Amino acid sequence: MAEEKLPTRSENYSEWYNQLIQRAEMADYAPVRGCMVVRPYGWALWENMQQNLDKRFKETGHVNAAFPLLIPKSFLEKEKEHVEGFAPELAIVTIGGGQELEEPLVIRPTSETVIGYMYSKWIKSYRDLPVLINQWANVVRWEMRTRLFLRTLEFYWQEGHTAHATQKEAEEETLRMLDVYADFAEKEAAVPVIRGRKSATERFAGAKETYSIEAMMGDTRALQAGTSHFLGQNFAKAFDIQYLDLNNQLQHVWTTSWGLSTRFVGAIIMAHGDDQGLVLPPRLAPYQVVLIPIYKNDEERSKVMPVVEKLKAELSGFRLKVDDRSEVTPGFKFNDWELRGVPLRIEVGPKDVEKGTFAMARRDIPGRDGKSFVPQVNAARTVGDMLDQIQTGIFQKAVDFRKAHVFDPKSYDELKEVLQGGWAYSWWCGDAACEAKVKEDTKATTRNIPLDQEGGSGKCIVCGKPASEKVYFARAY
Amino acid sequence: MAEEKLPTRSENYSEWYNQLIQRAEMADYAPVRGCMVVRPYGWALWENMQQNLDKRFKETGHVNAAFPLLIPKSFLEKEKEHVEGFAPELAIVTIGGGQELEEPLVIRPTSETVIGYMYSKWIKSYRDLPVLINQWANVVRWEMRTRLFLRTLEFYWQEGHTAHATQKEAEEETLRMLDVYADFAEKEAAVPVIRGRKSATERFAGAKETYSIEAMMGDTRALQAGTSHFLGQNFAKAFDIQYLDLNNQLQHVWTTSWGLSTRFVGAIIMAHGDDQGLVLPPRLAPYQVVLIPIYKNDEERSKVMPVVEKLKAELSGFRLKVDDRSEVTPGFKFNDWELRGVPLRIEVGPKDVEKGTFAMARRDIPGRDGKSFVPQVNAARTVGDMLDQIQTGIFQKAVDFRKAHVFDPKSYDELKEVLQGGWAYSWWCGDAACEAKVKEDTKATTRNIPLDQEGGSGKCIVCGKPASEKVYFARAY
Ligand SMILES: [Zn+2]
Ligand SMILES: [Zn+2]
User: Fold this and answer.
1) Which of A25, A267, B334, B430 is deepest in the core (most CB within 10 A)?
2) Which ligand ends up closest to the CA of B431?
3) Can you give the residue ranges of the Aminoacyl-transfer RNA synthetases class-II family profile domain (chains A, B) (predicted)?
4) Strands B131-140 vs B154-164: parallel, antiparallel or unpaired
């Protein structure tokens, strides 16, 4: 609860983030190092995200299934790059039912291998393709440095795994799902993102190409908020996923995978949060509206509550919380729900009852400027319009913030300078050595090579060689 | 697919079950012994069950959260009976990130311990109570003999964990959730169940009382389809979950837990399935209706398809599948969807187009008797009514089947006899020795002591001593 002030973002961004999550009861630390408990308020946000994404996956032809948590260790070794990427991060089960296991099992860090194995059993003919399956699951990666939501040993995500007859179809699927993520991020979470291709260095272990959406957080650091991988025939060959084509010839399938995780909750917190706490996007917020009755005594209460009940009924189409706790003051409630980021607060006091009005306070615009007094008639429409305005408002604010912190440095020295407080959007020759030098000098990595480029060519910001694409450099979570 | 006939239930019930699940593409065996892959068709059924249950949990005041998969091994040892029950079934992680762990971690077999630990952090005052949290999760129990859905190393479930200020509230919660399960089972899954108290022998490890719903399968064996546990203060004491009461005195809370798992999918399969395959309850079936166009040539096709499209639009409120595959015959499709248990099949052929009718075939009544020809007008209403009839019909069929196979034996010899092909509903003195003798002699266990008893008293069917309650004995899954 809101007993003490949060640290401000400028004082200590990292402490602001950690304390906010715990005080707003989004998540807590589990007894095992690096694991988290997602508390009901945080999980309600994730459930809204899940439902929205799940609908989008189903609309694009996907179905859900559930693949096992435990994978034979040998499976990971079948794809060379994959095992190199994931071996250091594995949690390994060596004992089951009191016995040492003959073959150790890994807890899935991701499921390409076991799904590849199943697809090789299920896919026989071109008629079986495409296979478009998603699963909502928990995965475990043994990370050394952890942060609630951003990087935890266990996290929750969806992972889509598709198999196609042709390279073209698989490539289209990869980009289709990247677009689904981008649209979700911008329309639902109000988080503007850059869609782009990762450099070879930053690619998923085992992928031919990785695409990502990248978002700017409130401290200007970047966060990779979703990825979509074109896996080529790497896993098809490792797991022998073949089909008989129209000419009765055996062919390897082409596969993709794509994932978005509870890390995205961290993105929402850091993209919109302010020094008072969370600012949640109306389309995903567990509560869109909190209604607070204001009264000093029983007489006032008996005037106010019928209007509260009437408004509650009229606003039943929204996710509404009526906070009628008697043991705390209205001021305490204001702070509490501000901390928890409820987009819109409604107050009803005795004067409102007389005038037939209520007060609305926007979470995204503090103080007087965000407050308005409106008639009780047409409350649902008024509130709906206001929630739309808030949704648009916080998106635009994030777009403006990003715009103010993306730079086009003219020299390598300037690049190093701008990366202290923003992103650089610069020509890059594509050479991993140039990427490594920037990382060495600034801790910034290439985020992605955006799909939307203005074209033309230039000189690599690092080595000066000709470059045909621009890339975003940024320090990242 | 339906290339070969299924074994009949009377030939080999167990093979009927195993083959049906695989052929209907409900689930498949994972590479790790005893683990399963729930395929899209099976998962769609589980998702419908989840949504329905989740709504019921929320209506009774519960919220969802997510607790971690990995639990320090020492946690399980804090509640003596709990560890005795679960120790033999644990999967243990001993290596993380390439290092031997200082303390081994168990993969949760159930979450009372880790949730108890978190509740002890969160609960301070009577104002924090009750805590009513549920989670949808995967758990792992190292079972030796496994069956798809019924008993797998990893399974999916929900586990509710609540904490209360008083014993009475916790007991009420335990029975409230038992009723939620029973209502779900009967109204949604059309599976009649007996609500009752488990014997001490059959109690959950660490519970003061365990209640269950028990269902009869098509081979007359019993299946425990959901459980609700009153945990007393066992876990509150083991994990030091205390609150300050109104008088500022520290008190231990009273807790409950309750769970229903993917095992219930097995119950649906075995309660309703017949020799042609699955028979799914309309309220939960992934597809409620399959629409099959019937035509011999392009001319007929061009007549039939507009009516199919029109019906598809009119029936958009149902979960409808139009099967317009051209590479297989209508007969193949009939068998295929019968195997998959779609409750209602609609056929539209050239004659139907002329007459303004379509044909409906109920999955639960084979052949001519289940077939009717109805006008295309008011299709949605006709189909809705028919689905309701099917839902009621399969429930009644299951009730009748159970009635025909529950016996009231007059002697111990008769008890042994009836248990070969049904359940016995008998007086029992409550002594574990009598229970053990029945198990030894017949493999049947006490299922539960039903909450709804006719009262009175009698003599224990085993030892003849006075008994005040009747119990169900049955062989069980
Ligand atoms: Zn360069
Ligand atoms: Zn007895």
Assistant:
1) A267
2) 2
3) 15-281
4) antiparallel
CB-nearest partner of A93 from B30, B64, B93 = B93
Which three-class secondary structure state does DSSP give residue B165?
Answer: coil
Written as one string, the DSSP assignment of A223-292 is EEEEEEEEEETHHHHHTT-EEE-TTS-EEE-EEEEEEEETHHHHHHHHHH-BTTB----TTT-S-SEEEE
SS3 B322: strand
3-state DSSP helix/strand/coil percent for chain B, to nearest 5?
40, 30, 35
pLDDT of residue B3: 60
CA distance B71 to A31: 8
State the distance from the centre of ligand 2 to the C-alpha of B225, rounded, in angstroms. Answer: 27
pLDDT in tens, B235-283: 999 999 999 999 999 999 999 999 999 999 999 999 999 999 999 999 9
Single-letter amino acid, residue B104: P
Residue A397, H or E segment? helix A379-404
Closest chain A C-alpha to B139 CA, distance in angstroms: 9
- DSSP secondary structure code for residue B6 in this structure: P
Condensed to tens digits (0 to 9), the pLDDT of residues B360-400 reads 999 999 999 999 999 999 999 999 999 999 999 999 999 99
Rg of chain B, C-alpha, whole Å: 25
What 3-state DSSP class applies to A428? Answer: strand
Q: How many Å apart are CA B161 and CA B62, to the nearest integer?
A: 10
Ligand with minimal distance to B464 CA: 2
User: Helix, strand, or coil here: A46?
Assistant: helix
Backbone angles phi, psi at B138, to 5 degrees: -105, 145
The amino acid that residue B424 corresponds to is: A
Which region, left, alpha or beta, applies to residue B206 given φ > 0 means left and ψ of -120 to 50 means alpha? left
Half-sphere exposure of B19 (CA within 13 A, CB side): 20
What sign has the CA pseudo-torsion A361, A364, A369, A372? negative
The strand pairing partners of A228, in sequence order, are A211, A258
Could you tell me which residues come within 8 angstroms of residue B451 by beta carbon, excluding any fewer than 6 positions away?
B175, B195, B196, B197, B211
CB contact under 8 A, A97 and B64: no
Pick from B55, B60, B52, B49: nearest CA to B177? B60
Give yes or no on whether B13-272 and B289-402 have one common fold: no
* Class of the domain covering B289-402: alpha beta
Give the ipTM of the model, two decimals please: 0.96
- What is the CATH code of the structural domain delimited by A406-474? 3.30.110.30
The second-level CATH assignment, the architecture, of B13-272 is 2-Layer Sandwich (3.30)
- Side-chain half-sphere CA neighbours of B101 within 13 A: 22
Is residue B344 within 8 A of residue B386, CB to CB? The reply is yes
Res A46 pLDDT > 60:
yes
Of B44, B68, B88, Cβ closest to residue A32: B68
Pair type for strands A222-232 and A242-244: unpaired
Q: Which of B179, B326, B119 is nearest to A37 (CA)?
A: B119
Q: Judge if the upstream peptide bond of residue A130 is cis by omega within 30 degrees of 0.
A: yes
A-chain CB neighbours of B65 within 8 Å are 37-40, 42-43
Per the rule left: phi > 0, alpha: psi between -120 and 50, beta: everything else, A464 is left
- All residues of chain B having their beta carbon less than 8 Å from the beta carbon of residue A105 are 32, 91
What is the rounded CA–CA span in Å between residue A177 and residue A259? 9
Exposure string of A307-318, with b = 16+ CB inside 10 Å and e = fewer, is: bbeebbebbeeb
Ligand nearest to the CA of A466: 1
Instruction: Report the distance separating Cα B132 and Cα B127, nearest Å.
Output: 13
Q: Hey, are the CB atoms on A37 and B68 less than 8 Å from each other?
A: yes
